[in-house]
């Protein structure tokens, strides 16, 4: 067996982590033969809850899990990391403006970025989940200048999986018969779920999503709004935010970084926009279609963009520019 890798999950006493930690510890993310040290970071008042999570992980008797380290200290949490999954963030409270939310989170992700810079391996792969994820990811990256920007990504795989599933349900096929859906832009309600390049396997034959669904009005209307608003719909129904599906998406995202994307298929993730061929401003963390090989992602180039898509891609970019500029003001 190889040497253990060190994996950090922040917000480790929370809902998403509760579903995620078991997936990681049993080998679904980093491989069935990869031993792990799990580092769990949360705020001081949550340490008693973390103790309970540690007990449960021990009680799972998982062969790959070599050690579990609960902590409220960044210098312990970020030391020698191979992977960091930053789930913890300040949640939006009732009556809170998006700007106030940004301000609170800039502080957290500036501090965690600096801790990554100081303590983690320079090869660390960082996934930001805590919202607003794209801008939090950008701030963490800017606060860790010695770690390559390409090592930072944010989660839009949940939106990607939602889009894939909606198409599959509509056509009446299993979800893995749908591939190459795209989430463009921000992990917010301005995101653009795009199926112009998606393929659906129907009766053994791959066809375009528009041909498979046979309802352009739905694909350009309710489909988009359903994916954009799905998080809010889950909260309304459960009185809690998406946790099981978020943990599954995080697992998918990190597994693809570790082992690469399936041949002939692309997925969506928020990455640095520098040098993209789609006219998106640079210095944003923006969700693009990517392929991954040898732990390195590449934006899929050369996809035709129609006027409908262009408008939606630009609208979500505009929101990200505003978020970034606001966040950078707070840092300054």
**SSE string:** EHEHEHEHEHEHEEEEEHHHHEEEH
User: How many distinct helices?
Assistant: 11
Tell me the strand order in the biggest sheet: 3-2-1-4-5-6
Major β-sheet profile: 6 strands, parallel
Strand content bin: 15-25%
Rounded Rg:
19 Å
Alpha-carbon distance between the two ends: 47 Å
Q: Give the rounded overall mean pLDDT.
A: 96
Structure classification: alpha/beta
pLDDT < 50 runs, ≥5 residues: none
Tertiary shape? globular
Range of helix content: 40-55%
How many DSSP E strands?
A: 14
Could you describe the 3D structure shown?
Helices cover 43% and strands 20% of the residues. With 332 residues, the chain is of the alpha/beta class. It has a six-stranded parallel β-sheet. Helix 1 crosses helix 10, helix 4 crosses helix 11 and helix 6 crosses helix 9. The longest helix is centred in the C-terminal third of the chain and has 25 residues.
Provide key terms for this protein.
single chain; alpha/beta; 6-stranded parallel beta sheet; 3-stranded antiparallel beta sheet
Write the layout of secondary structure elements.
Elements: E1 5-10, H1 15-25, E2 36-41, H2 47-59, E3 65-71, H3 74-77, E4 83-86, H4 98-119, E5 125-128, H5 133-142, E6 152-154, H6 157-171, E7 178-179, E8 182-184, E9 192-194, E10 199-202, E11 205-208, H7 209-213, H8 216-220, H9 222-238, H10 244-259, E12 267-272, E13 285-293, E14 296-299, H11 307-331
Parallel strand pairs: 1-2, 1-4, 2-3, 4-5, 5-6
Antiparallel strand pairs: 7-10, 8-9, 10-11, 12-13, 13-14
Helix pairs in contact: 1-10, 4-5, 4-11, 5-11, 6-9
